[in-house]
Amino acid sequence: MALKNVKYVLINEENEPIKNEDGSLDIKTAEIILENTAEVEEFNASNLENSNQQINELQTKNTELTSQIKQQTLQLKQIEVIDFINSNEEFKNVLLKSYDINDDNDDIEIIKTQLQSVYDELIKVQTVNTGVEYQKQKKNKTIF
């Protein structure tokens, strides 16, 4: 058996702490007898173990959620690219045409022209978005 001082506050019917006239909490002290300190220590150890387990579970959940956020961010970026492709009819046509390339030089030249046009448009978009003009090593801005 052991003695322990415990501090407590009385509460009213609405579960609110009863306060002194000056507004401070009316803190009481009582001495309690711990009949079996081994049980108390075991209880405290069990609580600590449960707390550690909850922390580990929360860390695991946090890792899972972080991974999901990264995946969703990647999916959003992919959707943005798809939306760009779908909204830019010329770019979309170049992509569709590129799957059906013949050895005909006219087709290849048309595709080159269209790709150059799309490339120029992308450079304009990049310049507007970043405020910095794209610099190439070559003086003429061609991708071929």
Topology overview:
Layout lengths: L1 E8 L17 E8 L2 H51 L1 H10 L6 H26 L14
Antiparallel strand pairs: 1-2
3D structure, described in words:
By secondary structure, the protein is mainly α. It has a domain at 88-134. The protein is 60% helix and 11% strand. It contains three helices and two strands. It has helices at residues 37-87, 89-98, 105-130; strands at residues 2-9, 27-34. The protein has a two-stranded antiparallel ribbon. Helix 2 (89-98) runs antiparallel to helix 3 (105-130). The radius of gyration is 35 Å and the shape is elongated. The mean pLDDT is 76.
Short characterization:
60% of the residues lie in helices and 11% in strands. The protein is mainly alpha-helical.
What general form does the structure show? elongated
| Class of secondary structure makeup | mainly alpha
Determine the N-to-C terminus distance: 89 Å
Report the β-strand fraction as a percent range: 5-15%
Write the element-wise H/E pattern from the N-terminal end onward. Answer: EEHHH
How are the strands of the biggest sheet laid out side by side? Answer: 1-2
What labels describe this entry?
two-stranded antiparallel sheet, mainly alpha, about 140 residues, 2 strands, single chain
